[in-house]
Design brief:
By secondary structure, this protein is of the alpha/beta class. It has 7 helices and 11 strands. The structure holds NADP nicotinamide-adenine-dinucleotide phosphate.
Length: 220
């Protein structure tokens, strides 16, 4: 499978690129900072320079051409509300439109768990981030793409163990970035997992089994 990653040099993007490359997928990893080319190449992916703010839909579509799936795990990462709007919001819309223009239907978006930050004092920047993420999810669900939205809990940098809880509605919790990457890799291998929104935390189910259960929930 040929996968185009947006946000490939990020905390989730890097381990995902490495996992996909290791299993034989061809991965193109988009980055905006030229210095990140080496980071992406070290995962086994092919670096592609690009910027969700500067690039037009046509520019992005040209970069996406020939791939089977897009994974969007980019984010403004607390660099301001304007950037959040441009990257986490309009960036998703541009990428989705570009995917459709390039004839690529599979589109996997890393969004955010709706319960994030509920135990903290309200913060305008964070509330803006949550609204933008939700609006991007809404936009994607109204496209004709074979979309999959994954909403991870609070991201952690501890090494992954491949064990998660994944479901349509689960209790809030932390999730290791490497476990998110492992879940995304498993989900990409099952294109029939689409048109759904999955909440994801660390847990006790191996990622492949978690994806299989989402496709065929066990009867109790
Ligand atoms: N932090 C949390 O607890 C949490 C929880 C749930 C969901 N999330 C979401 O999970 C996703 C992945 O998180 P992460 O930890 O992997 O994030 P990250 O490490 O900040 O990675 C985001 C990547 O997006 C890239 N990016 C930013 N602006 C861009 C642009 N204009 N064009 C192209 N690429 C751009 C960044 O590149 P640069 O280095 O150039 O900025 C970076 O490589 C994000 O969308 C985040 O909002 C986060």
């Amino acid at each position: 499978m040929k996968v185009f990653q947006i946000g490939a040099a990020g905390g989730v993007g890097r381990p995902l690129a490495a996992l996909l490359s290791a299993r034989g997928d061809e991965v193109s990893g988009m980055h905006r900072n030229p210095e990140q080319a080496a980071v992406i190449a070290a995962t086994g992916a092919t670096p592609v320079i690009g910027d969700l703010i500067e690039d037009s839909v046509g520019d992005l579509a040209a970069k996406f051409a020939g791939h089977d799936a897009i994974v969007f795990s980019a984010g403004a990462h607390g660099t301001g509300t304007d950037k959040t709007t441009l990257i986490d919001g309009q960036g998703v819309e541009k990428a989705a439109e570009a995917a459709a223009r390039a004839g690529i239907y599979r589109f996997v978006l890393v969004s955010v768990f709706p319960d994030a930050g509920r135990d903290r004092e309200p913060n305008p920047g964070f509330e803006h981030y949550m609204r933008v993420k939700k609006t991007a999810d809404v936009f994607l669900t109204h496209t004709g793409l074979d979309w999959l939205i994954v909403r991870p809990g609070t991201l952690r940098d501890e090494p992954g163990n491949g064990l998660v809880t994944a479901g349509l509605a689960i209790e809030y919790g932390d999730v290791r970035r490497e476990n998110v990457a492992a879940f995304l890799a498993a989900a990409l291998a099952r294109p029939e997992l689409r048109h759904t929104i999955i909440e994801l935390t660390d847990g006790s189910t191996p990622v492949e089994a978690a994806v299989a259960e989402l496709l065929a929930p066990p009867r109790s």
